[in-house]
Each structure stands twice: as C-alpha cells, then as structure tokens.
Amino acid sequence: MKAKRMPLRVGNPLIKYQVFPPRRDYISLSVKDLLDARDAYHVYLSTLDNVVATAIGRYLIHEKDWYATHSPVEPRPPSHPLVSEPRTLSNSVVRPWSWPAVLIFVRQWADAGALGSNAVPRTLYLPDGRVIPTCVVQATPDESVPPPAPGPSFNSSLLGGGYSCLREHQGEQSLGTFACLVQKAGAYYALTNRHVAGGDGEQVQAYIRGQYHPIGTTSNLAVDRVPMSTVFSQWGNGRTYLTMDSGLIRIDNIGDWTSQVFGIGEIGEIFDATEQSVTLDLIGCPVRAFGGSTGVAAGEIRALFFRYQSLGGYEYVTDVLIGPKAGLQGLEEKPFTSPGDSGTLWFYDPPARQPAASGTPDFDLTVQPPERGRSARRLPPIAMQWGGQRVVRPDARSSSFALGMFLSSICRVLDVEVVRNWSTGHNEYWGKIGHFAIGWKACDYLSGPLGQLMKMHQVRIGFGDDKLDAGSAFRMGRGAFVPLADVPDYVWVGMKGTRPFEPIQHFADVDIYDIDGGPTLLERCVRDSNNVFAQVWKAYFDGFASKGVGPEDGCLPFRVWQIWEAMVRYLKGRDLRRFVAAAGILAHYVGDASQPLHCSYMHHGKPPMQSSGGRDYPVPRDSDQFKTFKKSRAAKIHGIYEETMLEIDPATALAGVDAALARRTGGLKVENGHDAAVATISLMCAAQKHLSPQMIIDADDANLPAKERASRLWDNKYVRAGTIQSLADSVRLLAKLWTAAWEIGGNKEVRLPKEAFSEKELENIYRRDRGFLPSLSLEKMAKSGNFEPPARQ
Q1: What is the pTM for the complete model shown?
Q2: Where does 448-606 have alpha helices with state H?
Q3: 385 & 493 share domain
Q4: Which DSSP helix (H) or strand (E) runs through 689?
Q5: Are residues 134 and 204 in the same domain?
Q6: 376 and 461, same structural domain?
Q7: What's the pLDDT tens digit per position in 720-779?
Q8: In angstroms, rounded to a whole number, what is the distance separating the alpha carbons of residues 608 and 620?
C-alpha cells in the first residue's frame, strides 16, 4: 500500500510545503542576513536619488491591504485589489506572517516602471546564494521648523526620569529629558543626552512648577558614537558607527530624587541587548515613555539599526526606530515626539491580549501583566531616545518617530549602573493625591440633579481611592487630557505667555503682621469680612513692597470668588460645559486653601528675614538671599509635605478623609462671590488652627532624604490628623460652593446632558479658550471694582 504523502511544515507555519528539500523561506532570515545584505548593497542604494535611509525589520503591510487582516492561507479575492497609495510607517502594520526584509525609505513614492534604473530592487542577492527581500517605505523628510513644544509643567519638586532639563551654553539653550538615575564610582548621576550633558562643570536645571531650578552640573563622562562592532562584535564593520549621544549630569543632592520615572513607575530589569537577544521579534514590540516635552507616548518598535546618514565613507546607525502604535486612531493629532524629548527612556509596555486576525493561528500567548512595585508598575527599560525623525505624510500632515539606543549598550560604554530602588514607593504620577481626591470626593458628597451632573463627570475631575491608592492611569503632556482638579498646576502654571499671573492665584501669604506691625491680614479678614476686599489686600502687600521686604502678592480667595461667579454666569447662560469645567478646576484652589503652607509666608519653610521698623519680614523672592534659600534642603518642605507625604500611606489618608466627612458640620452661607471668598478665608484659618506652618517645619528633618522626611511627617500624629481634617474641610467647602452656584444660577431650568462631555470638549476649553477664567493680577482685581464686599457696592 502506498503511503499517503503528508505536507511538510518547515519555516513559515502558515505555508504548506509540497516539495523536499524545501526552498529556503524568507521567514527564516536572521538579523545578520539582513545586515549583510544591506552592507553589500549600500553603495548601490546610496546612488539612488530617492533613497533617504535604510533599516532592517519585517515587511510592512498597508493597513488597507487584504493581508493586513487575513493570513496567506486566505488568498486575496478579486474584489479586494492591491493598494496603490504610498506605504508609510504610519499607515502600515506588521503581522505574524510579515517576513524579514531590508526597509528602504524613499523621498517620494513612484511606480517602479517610471523610475527605471532608479527603482529600488525588490530582492537583494548575496554571493553565497542568500536572497533578501526589500520593503519600500515613503518617508519624505519634513524640513519645516518644528512647532514649539511647551511640554508638561511638573508639579512635584521630587525629581526623577521624565523631567525636562536645560543647559545654557554660549547663548544657546539645550533642552532634553532626564532618562534615569545611574551610579558610577560611588557617585550619583542623571543620565540624559550628550547635548544637554556636554561640557564640564556647567549648570543644569530641571523644569518644576513652571520654572527651571538648578539641580546639578555637567560632567565629562559622555559618549557620542562608537563602532558597531565594539557593541555587537558579530555584526557591523569598522565603518559603521552606533550613535549613542549620552552623557551624565552630576546631581547636587540625591535626596531630591527618586529612581522612578514620572508617568511610568519603577524601573524593572533592563533589556540586555546582545546578538542573541536582539532578534526580529522586537519588531512591533509595544513601548511606553514619558518625554519632558511631549509627555506620555505609547508606541512600538518599527525597525532596527536605522541607517540615517552616510558621511565621509562612514555610516551612522541607531538601534531602534520607534513610532506610534499601528492601527490606533488619533495618535497623529499631536507630535509623537518633540524637541526636548531627547533622553527619554522607552519601556516595554505589556499589551492587553487582542483577538487574532481573521483566519490566522493564534500565536499570542497569555500576556503577563506588568510587575508592580509598592504603588506603581515596574516596567523593563529598552532604549533611550537621542533624537527624532520628522517626515511628511502623503496627506501633507507632519509625523515623527523616535530614534533610540539600547540602554544596556549605553550603560556598558559609560560603565554605569542604573539605580532602581532609590526612594521608590510613589505612584506613576507623584504629587497629585490631594487635589484629585478632593474633586472626586466632593462629587460623592452631592445629591439631586447637581450630584447627577457632577458624578457623570467625576472621572473628568479627579480619581477615586482605588486609583489614587495604587497609582492611576493619569495622562499628562502636550495635547493630553489633564483631569480638571489639577489643570492649574499641570497646564496653566506653565502658560507664562498667556497666564503670567497664574502662580499668585494659588497662594495668600497673609499670616504675618502688616508693615506697621498691625494684625495679620488673615486675622483682620476673619474678624471683619469687609476686609475680604481686593483693595485692602493690595494695600497690605504694597506696604511690604514699599519697604523692600516680602511677602509678595497672593490672591487665592479672590480666585475662588472669580470662579464661583463664573460658574453662576455659565449656568444662567445654560453653558453646562463651562460650568463643569469651572467647577472641576475650582477643586484645585479650594484644595490649596486647605494647605497651611499655601496661606503662609513660610510656604517654603522659614525664609531669611530682614528688619524693617524694628520688626522682621521675609526677604523679597527676587533677592539673592531668597534664591539661595530656595536651593536649600529646608526649602523643599512645601513639596514634601503637600505631595510626597500623602504617598506614604494613601489608603489610610483617604480613609481618614472619608471618616471625617461622615461627621457632617454646618458652615457659612454662600449667596455671592464675596461669600465664597469669605468661606475660603474661614477654610484657610481653620487649616492653620488644625496644623500651623511652624508645626510642620518643626516636625521636619531637612537632613534626611525626601522619602524619609515625608515618612517622618506622616508618622507625626498631629501632622497626620491636621492634614486629614483639612482635606475633609476642603471637600465640604467645594461641595457647598458648587451647590450655591447651582441654586443661584437657576438650576430648575437646566436640562442635564444625556452623556458626559468628552475629554476633548473640556480640554479645548481649558487649553485653548483664553477668555476662560483668566488669571488676573491683584492690581487688576483691585482696579476692576468687581472684588468689593457687598456693603461697598
């Protein structure tokens, strides 16, 4: 009996072979095969005018092509013709059946017949018989000036990877991003790009709360490029160089840092890039980063060993080309990467399991969720970005891609070790628990139609205990949605061009006697509400300025007054979108009013003092004395108390607020903007009674690292109890202010929306509407006549 012939499954598991020995299939090609082919054809390809770069990877399938969703076991039907439009990195996908290929990036897309001898060959033939396919990709260089990237405004003074950094040299500013903390020979450094860390002994600054602050100095420990053969001995040749563009910044104080990366979490095991581990399986690998300019970015590795330049007989290559995740909509609405992101660290980002495309075997094994540290994810870093590639898409829109080097290679060349466990235990976005909790809990404090409206938008305002306790998926960055409760810190403080007076909206240093030795302004306002009057406040601060002392202007209660009246106005005009936006943003300022240091001349600790009229007053903030004081460890108390301390045990803090809220209390009646400001003054006064600024300062030990200082504060029962009570008070007041505005604004005629306003709708208001809740100077408030007590109106 003749045996039945069975098909052999060799190479590509999707193809059934009927011959033996099988022909060598493209799927079996290795990284070395592709690199050898590119090197062999480099001279020829460089003569083609249309070729701008090359890389290796897997064949890219146009997202509209039949085989983008169907495997080769399902032949293309006649009703689904070939796609004729250009293939780009933005409109193409990689599938399990995408074979290895040399990627050829061209300036313009054209028919091969029309190009003639300038056409890119479809296959490359090596002398030993290897046959290597090519994949042509349009990548028209974008030579226009890139748009400005203001970047995220970091709220916390606790530094880490992801923060924007700057070095000024020869009249030029070099912007970048801190990658992570590293250690070398017993000293701590911040890793970033060479152009920021260049020189030796030059000051480097970090961007915090809308301003750059000195954090360290450049060192001469840096690398520009190295021969590829020194990193990957089996690949490359003596004329191929890997661009590393990496350098170290010697930081001033390790106590100001955490080894976590902002927006990412803790650092996991580093991907060790070797000839054995760097395979074509990296193509399509999902990655995540937080850049100092762009903020959150989610992408995937699209190509390896991108050769972007040939000069003087030498080739310059980068390890990975990273682009937006294929197939997701809306990713091109903002730049994928921007100037200032150099130094950004890219991490493997475990994806959610996706169903396999129609007709394909399910190659996807169960994806393990990311490892978790105490309060945040722990992701493995892959590469550090050193530059970007900007291209023009066929629809004339600009697109961008990140160029990066394997972090393990950088560490090997610089001989440094990544610090992974310094001051960890923070969530992904440290410094936000208080404001987001206040906004969220105030929604739960309401009932009726207003409660229905605010609960509908609760996720647009803040976060619940579950996310704040474990670290939330909060997104922050250029063009990304920021929940309303922290828009003033994360968005408006950084808008110096359009909101130069935003910082003074957050403070009111009114707990020091006036320039003539009279009662503090806080005492006067509590004693007589008619002193809650912009002209009275301006006279108070003008008195200090006339003698060349501080404190300086602050207008926190009047900001609450302004927003409350705007809420009423929006409601009367049936503009519920702006009502919700203003209500959510009001949560931030009410939260500031319940923080004792926000209402004190000791907002950064006990400042240097100078004498006037036999009394001591703070030195002006623009003085050299104060600037020196701001660099001291003692001056970090504000951020450590307000931000880091609440992350020591967020579950206990949030539960304590709930317990305090269960004890409902009365309060002042609010019928107008002045009443709202008076109620804010009462909150400020109560906060200092619960916990005075001096008590916070006395409980601190500035000699300890930031995390230990925060723990010391939290372990102090008076500090802990006072903080929890003030947070609960602010939730009550916020709910009261919302309710009063709802009633005065004519709520009975308001029809609630059927669904919540989208992130985009609210973001357009707070980012792009310059007339929305403008940040006014105290002088303008006083001159306007709009901030006078009713008795004077």
Answers
A1: 0.83
A2: 448-456, 458-461, 465-470, 487, 521-527, 534-546, 556-572, 576-593
A3: no
A4: helix 673-690
A5: no
A6: no
A7: 999 999 999 999 999 999 999 999 998 777 789 999 999 999 999 999 999 999 999 999
A8: 9
Q: How is residue 764 written in tokens?
A: 């357009």
Distance in angstroms between the alpha carbons of the first and the last residue of the chain:
110
Contact call for residues 247 and 218 (beta carbons, < 8 A): yes
The token pair at 791 is: 């008795």
Nearest Cα to Cα of residue 301 among 319, 316, 317: 319
Co-location of 575 and 608 in the same domain: yes
Total number of domains constituting the chain: 3
10 Å Cβ neighbour count for 6?
A: 7
Pairing outcome for strands 131-138 and 100-106:
parallel
* Last residue of one domain, picked from the residues 80, 112, 141: 141
Tabulate helix, strand, coil % of the chain (nearest 5). Answer: 35, 25, 40
Same domain, 400 and 456: no
What is the radius of gyration, based on Cα positions, of the chain?
30
Whether 592 and 703 share a structural domain: yes
For residue 597, CA distances in Å to 214, 349, 507 come to 23, 39, 9
Domain interval for residue 462: 433-781
Q: Is the same domain home to 183 and 321?
A: yes
Domain shared by 246 and 295, yes or no: yes
How is residue 492 annotated by DSSP? I
Cβ 471 vs Cβ 427: under 8 Å: yes
Condensed to tens digits (0 to 9), the pLDDT of residues 195-241 reads 899 878 899 999 887 778 899 999 999 999 999 999 999 897 778 99
82 φ, ψ (degrees, to nearest 5): -60, 145
- Burial of residue 480 (CB within 10 Å: 0-12, 13-18, 19+) is middle
